[in-house]
Amino acid sequence: MSGKVTPLSGFPEFLPSDRIVELEFLDTIRETFELHGFASIETRAVEPVERLSNQGEDADKEIYGVRRLGAAADEKSDLGLHFDLTVPFARYVLENSGKLAFPFRRYQIQKVWRGERPQEGRYREFTQADIDIVGDGTLPFHYEVELPLVIADAFSKLPIPPFRIQVNNRQIPEGFYRGLGIEDVASVLRIVDKLDKIGADKVTQLLTADGGPALSAETAKQVLRLAEISSADASFVEQVRALGVQHEILDEGLERLAAIMTAANEHAPGLLVADLKIARGLDYYTGTVYETQLIGHESYGSICSGGRYDSLASDGKTTYPGVGISIGVSRLITRLISQGLVKGSRSTPTAVLIALTTEDERAEAMRTAAVLRGRGIPVEVAPAAAKFGKQIKFADRRGIPFVLFSTENGPEIKDIRSGEQVAVDPATWAPPADDVRPSIETIQENS
Amino acid sequence: MSGKVTPLSGFPEFLPSDRIVELEFLDTIRETFELHGFASIETRAVEPVERLSNQGEDADKEIYGVRRLGAAADEKSDLGLHFDLTVPFARYVLENSGKLAFPFRRYQIQKVWRGERPQEGRYREFTQADIDIVGDGTLPFHYEVELPLVIADAFSKLPIPPFRIQVNNRQIPEGFYRGLGIEDVASVLRIVDKLDKIGADKVTQLLTADGGPALSAETAKQVLRLAEISSADASFVEQVRALGVQHEILDEGLERLAAIMTAANEHAPGLLVADLKIARGLDYYTGTVYETQLIGHESYGSICSGGRYDSLASDGKTTYPGVGISIGVSRLITRLISQGLVKGSRSTPTAVLIALTTEDERAEAMRTAAVLRGRGIPVEVAPAAAKFGKQIKFADRRGIPFVLFSTENGPEIKDIRSGEQVAVDPATWAPPADDVRPSIETIQENS
What we know:
Chain A is an alpha+beta fold. Chain A is built from 15 helices and 19 strands.
């Protein structure tokens, strides 16, 4: 294989030091999910295309079809790469329902693929970290309070800017729209979902246009008034009531969202904001929906989203309602890295380089390395015998903090940052705890 | 989404308790790779098809092509899912050569896809765990000794049967064949590679057939004699010499393999077996090749393979020779699980279930859960208030070892295995270390 290599747009890859940041994030997220009792699963990358289709948001044409190059030319591609982890999870639940214990709490950290036009924060391949809880037949409401608290717990351990979880209940706009006499609720929801991206004027134009829902100017105004309501407590209810629209679905939505805000404020005051413009593009959500903004990075869009879905998984006899939330890991990390907010402390796990003066020392160096590794210290032996300065340079280039030399007086270790060199016994010496593993360096204090 | 769901052949998925086994394996492998100073990278799932093609082993028609469903009907699919991690890594090295420090040690644990006919141990989607070391221009020979030692270190920490790493150098058969006057070395190698699968008679038939390499009966016999040689030390050299074939490439191969055997025996006596029938199907290997058998499971084939490749990555100016080895994680684990050799100790990370007598206790239970999680103990709160017996059953079904009840006398914790129930202070109580996380239960002693 040879010749010029150019990156594929929308398929980001990390250099080793940035990958260290990603691994740290993934480890912290996984650890938090497990502390909250979520079990890991992985689903295959492909699903039958008909299972992936019709989930809204122009998703169909963005699906990547998959087929063997050796397949006959006229053979239809009936498999596609999953574009999220919720649809495959619903299928997994149906397939294994007899072997799972419900309510089933699972986390899933995997790549997903969407054939979108790539732009900052929008990739064709990216990693999501999802938690979902699925019941058989019914699913208690309290899980809708619990999930954002799990996310808040994970985020509190990560070097990220302050964030805001926005929550809504789809029944609120649905009931409100029905109360206004709007029939095509889904179309209006999808237009309102673009409010942050395209602004109120453009939304009004789309809502009132002949090709679209063709709302009257006054109805469109009411739709926008609802979308502009937000509150850090249950006071949004009064604001909605003041708009004078009545519908029983609206009442139910208001009651449920108020209950979430009240319960969340008990456990994590200020964490949630009721924001009535939040809709989520995917069609499978039926109740509560979540989005998350990094404060100061609002225009970047949501880095963690989800919601309640009541009918995604059904085998005809039983329906498995669920609620889930998904961290856009790639979106989050590429933002922090590209803004220079985080970086890896080195480009390799190695904490100690064992230097060689002659190739004859290699066998002994390998034994010394094994001793250090046995005590959990990452070590590598120099690729070749070389002079002192060259070995230091090798370590420095990778950010390896310590170089071990064999001297006439026995082994000595040099901290290449301070220059300090001391005699050591490899059987007992250990680096300071912070130097054993690479870590994330934050450039800006987070609050 | 509804209706009957059937598994896709060749795309295995684990239930939560088996996934716990897989996670344990992956964590141990990663930890070992990092202790040996390998840096993590991930590459995108897709490569341009022309980069994936022509790697031998009928790989081309087994590649999964990928294209957007929204693409024009006559648009050629020019992307494919990677079928290994070596080809993408070589591309990554070329793409980032200016930003990497050489020799570059990396590990990569990812899914790969091959459109093969599924059978036991052969999947269409599976996980590999690779280590490779790549140099710029040159790569010292000692890495060919080091890599199998890293694998042996990882395997020594895993609950797997005894194993045998078989090693060969492709220069040996190549030089030997050339010494016999054989011109189409690649075809003969590919046929010999099937020896374990199809047996000596069938191999002889293929070697002498008119459509194939059309060797004479005596030449085919010599080819088979070479393939039958193996030794746990460097004594294979004499056995080859006794066959009376001469070629300078053969001499070089023998010398190198003897050096590996000698060095490996210094560090891990008995770990490597020189086995001259080992060839590897992929065309990019140029020197040392490795395969690994589980003893007692020889017919299952190799669970860890690799080799040296000198010309996989070249940008015209610089060539980046490498050596790598890849653990077939899915192959290995599905074998152990299907044979009943390992299982997860429970189906969830949860160590403690907090029971609820009434729904009013939920807020307090959530606070208690947070206290335990803060000390690293995985906890979940019961989905609903229920009677004593039902809560025990909930925990038992998932293998959760402890249930915490609030009683008139304060919180008490029950070990549901022993039935023992004691008063505890959640701020200080912890389960025994072995119960904090799920683990792997081995059914058969491994030696």
